[in-house]
């Protein structure tokens, strides 16, 4: 296999996305920015587990945090990753931004070449 940096980036991205709890957190954060406490309540996960998953999502460039004093609010850093999740669930045609610039974000140009229909076909056959 050729050494393709885009594929390595996408592989790391999908490794982070391979956890159901992180997918759930990203979907919740896509709906609206939230605190750890709000995510804890919405998911039923412990505060520690929510924080661990958020750390992995931040490290992967998928979530960001804004701090206001002692309160931290998390949000999705790249809406296009949420689009990939929705496409995999078969809902991307309604929720993905049409013609959006995907060139920014952790997967960069590797996702920029894919449309929701193509991604859905590749992910679910």
Record the strand order, biggest sheet: 1-3-2
By helix and strand content, what is the structural category?
mainly alpha
* β-strand number: 3
Encode the helix/strand succession as letters.
HHEHHEEHHHH
Report the average pLDDT across residues: 78
CATH fold title of the largest domain: Arc Repressor Mutant, subunit A
The percent of residues in helical segments reads: 55-70%
| Dominant shape | globular
Per CATH, the architecture of the largest domain is: Orthogonal Bundle
- Unreliable spans are 99-116, 118-122
**How many distinct helices?**
8
Gyration radius (Cα, Å) is 15 Å
CATH superfamily of the largest domain: Winged helix-like DNA-binding domain superfamily/Winged helix DNA-binding domain
Look at the structure and give the CATH class of the largest domain: Mainly Alpha
Supply the number of structural domains: 2
Structure description:
There is one protein chain. The longest helix is centred in the N-terminal third of the chain and has 13 residues, at 5-17. This protein has two domains: 16-76, Arc Repressor Mutant, subunit A (Orthogonal Bundle), CATH 1.10.10.10; 79-124, no CATH class. It is mainly α. It has helices spanning 5-17, 20-31, 36-43, 47-59, 79-88, 92-95, 109-112, 116-124; strands spanning 34-35, 63-68, 71-76. The model is unreliable at 99-116 and 118-122 (pLDDT under 50). Helices cover 58% and strands 11% of the residues. Strands 1-3-2 form a three-stranded antiparallel β-sheet. The two termini are 23 Å apart. Strand 2 and strand 3 form a beta hairpin. It has eight helices and three strands; from the N terminus they run H-H-E-H-H-E-E-H-H-H-H.
